[in-house]
Amino acid sequence: MTTLFQRLVMYLRETSQWKVPVISSMFRSKLPHWSSENISDQWFTDHFEGAAPIIHEWLNAEMEMPGASLLDFGCGDGITDLAIALKYRPKNMIGVDITSTFTNLNEIAARQIGLNRLPKNLSFQKIVPGQGLVHILKIDAIFTWSTFEHIERPHLDTVVADLFDLLPQGGLFFLQIEPLYYSPFGSHLGRFIKQPWAHLLLDEETLKRTVLEYSDDIPANEKEYNFYVRTFEEYKAFIYGEFLKLNKLTAEEVVDLFCGHGFKEIRKESYRVALPVPDILLEKYPEEDILTNEIRLLLQKP
Ligand SMILES: C[S@@+](CC[C@H](N)C(=O)[O-])C[C@H]1O[C@@H](n2cnc3c(N)ncnc32)[C@H](O)[C@@H]1O
Question: I need a surface site. Which of 87, 117, 197, 221 has the fewest CB within 10 A?
Answer without folding.
Answer: 117
